[in-house]
Amino acid sequence: MKTVLLTGFEPFNKEPINPAWETVRALDGWGEGDFRVVARQLPCVFGDANTAMAALIVELQPALVIAVGQAGGRVDLSVERVAINVDDAPIKDNAERQLVDEAIVRGGPAAYFSTLPIKAIVAALRAAGLPASVSQTAGTFVCNHVFYGLMHAVAGRGDVKAGFIHIPYLPEQAARHPGAASMSLEQMIEGMRVAIRTALATDGDAVAAGGATH
Questions:
Q1: Which residues pair with 6 in a beta bridge?
Q2: What is the Cα–Cα distance from 65 to 116, expressed in whole angstroms?
Q3: pLDDT at residue 212 above 80?
């Protein structure tokens, strides 16, 4: 039985809820055929989040890891292409730290690419009626920090697919942020199901141009 690890962050930046955690925890224990999902919460704290992620990979030995994060400015399910080796926080993390121009891994590569079939996932999400795009930046806050840390932890391992997906606000969050887009929790959950199925079933990636909005 393959293990699929989904991670979502605790609430941050004074939000009472984090759609990333609400989405992944709804899928904890779900599975089909030869895989089962394990969902775990990560702290929204530089350093601690990557320590927790690395420990989970050792403990669970997953075949697939998808880290999920909230991006309040996004309008769709954004499948991230690349993580960069820098922390440059626009706000404080949950430990009240605001890192500026610091390497995530000193001496590490400038960037890592997702090993998810990102374009195939976007195509499958759109076919399911869910707004989705390939994103070219995961930012420089804790989401990118974890994305980079995840890819560093599994670098060179052909037995693990890994990457990051950003999701928008929930409607109740968007109500407090005039003009912000939102998506229902049910759509986000279904989107993750589609992403998991596609990632496990796809070798290589779809060949298509564009699809990026960020």
A1: 39, 66
A2: 9
A3: no
What local confidence, expressed as pLDDT, does residue 210 receive?
54
Residue type, 132: A
Q: Is 209 helix (H, G, I), strand (E, B) or coil?
A: coil
Provide the b/e sequence for 149-170 (b: ≥16 CB within 10 Å). bbbbbbeeeeebbbbbbbbbbb
Partners of 112 in the beta sheet? 83
- Cβ neighbours of residue 39 under 8 Å, at least 6 residues apart? 5, 6, 7, 8, 24, 25, 27, 28
Hey, which residues does 188 pair with through a beta bridge?
none
- pTM summary value: 0.94
Given a contact cutoff of 8 angstroms between Cβ atoms, the answer to whether 86 and 101 are in contact is: yes
Task: Point out the residues that are catalytic.
Answer: 80, 143, 166
CA distance 89 to 72: 15
Could you tell me if 168 and 74 are in contact, meaning their C-beta atoms sit under 8 angstroms apart?
yes
**pLDDT for the residue 177:** 84
Residue 173 amino acid letter: Q
Name, in order, each residue with C-beta under 8 angstroms of 176's C-beta and a sequence gap of 6 or more.
none
CA 203 to chain centre: 20
Please, which residues have CB within 8 angstroms of residue 173's CB and are 6 or more apart in sequence?
15, 17, 19, 72, 180, 182
Q: Helix H segments across the chain?
A: 19-26, 48-60, 118-127, 142-154, 171-174, 185-201
